[in-house]
């Protein structure tokens, strides 16, 4: 990855629908070399997919719940089973294995508290959990899907 690739990624993270010709113009490349770079980053897995970011309220999932899970099961088989169960719950949009006091953390989006209660009841009926704690987001202060590129390893392209 060089500085031009980082510039391309910055533009794509802001608007993945931007035409390649415009991206090329903004980074100082013609269309074909720019497209080749984008394709290479897709092949290398740097660009995993291109998606549309939706307004949660407009698709009726305006309530965000952070769910902390503790378990007494700490083995690979149970972890894979839990991941399989969570994979079936479309309300879970993020799912992490954690260090510290909490074993797993989920971000769940639902229309309202009643929908979260239904989610919770389905969850505990599917897998045994030691402790589940929920925190409802009162408001969103910052949200982005753009990753910081300051830490990306850049090849010295000035040589």
From TrEMBL:
Keywords: DNA-binding, Transcription, Transcription regulation
InterPro entries: ArsR-like_HTH, AsnC-type_HTH_dom, Dimeric_a/b-barrel, Tscrpt_reg_AsnC-like, Tscrpt_reg_AsnC/Lrp_C, Tscrpt_reg_HTH_AsnC-type_CS, WH-like_DNA-bd_sf, WH_DNA-bd_sf
Transmembrane stretches, start-end: none
SUPFAM superfamilies linked to this entry: Dimeric alpha+beta barrel, Winged helix' DNA-binding domain
All residue ranges annotated as the HTH asnC-type domain in the record: 1-64
Presence of keyword Transmembrane: no
Pfam families (UniProt xref): AsnC_trans_reg, HTH_AsnC-type
CDD domains in UniProt: HTH_ARSR
Protein name: Lrp/AsnC family transcriptional regulator
Species for this entry: Devosia honganensis
